[in-house]
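User: Hey, quick favor. My workstation is busy. Could you predict this chain's structure for me?
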Amino acid sequence: MTFVNLSLLAGSALIVVPIVLHLLMRRKPMRLEFPALRFIQTRLDANRRRLQLRHLLLLLLRAGIIAILALALARPSVRLAGALGSQESPVAAALVFDAAPHMEYRHENQSRLEASRDLGLWLVTQLPERSEIAVLDTRLGSPAAFLPDRGAAKDRIARLESVANSQSLPAALDGAMKLLRQSTQPRKEIYVFTDLSRGG
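Assistant: No problem, here it is.
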């Protein structure tokens, strides 16, 4: 086979041009996202974040329970030093007894005043050594002073009786607080013995 113009045959190489143009100018597919799918994806992300937060809180709660349990089993205690002193240091204690007539009401074959006397006698034995003890009641003109020793305090409690003309319990407490302010003891305590009636 022979060609009249062989040089023009080389022009067939130009066939590459439309192929390249076709590949370059080919339209790329557009990605369309449906609104419903976008909403589902948003909800999925929100739910995932919520679950992660919930799992984190649950992890912290479990770790906190274990830490509190370990702390409770270790039985922590606080020892306060300084002004409060120790439980064995002497105190200034005022025992205030309600001596109004309603303290004569009886319950289980014992008047409220008798029960208060028994409790007061027991309390005097529990106070630390060298404590300053005052026994006050709501009788008018009741002396507000510290007693010389524990025996005098017990004797004063044992002789307590109810009276018809008594002052109010807050007035007796006011006298007890004034007396305690005069003490040099760092710990000051007031014990009130009453039947918790409306008058008391």
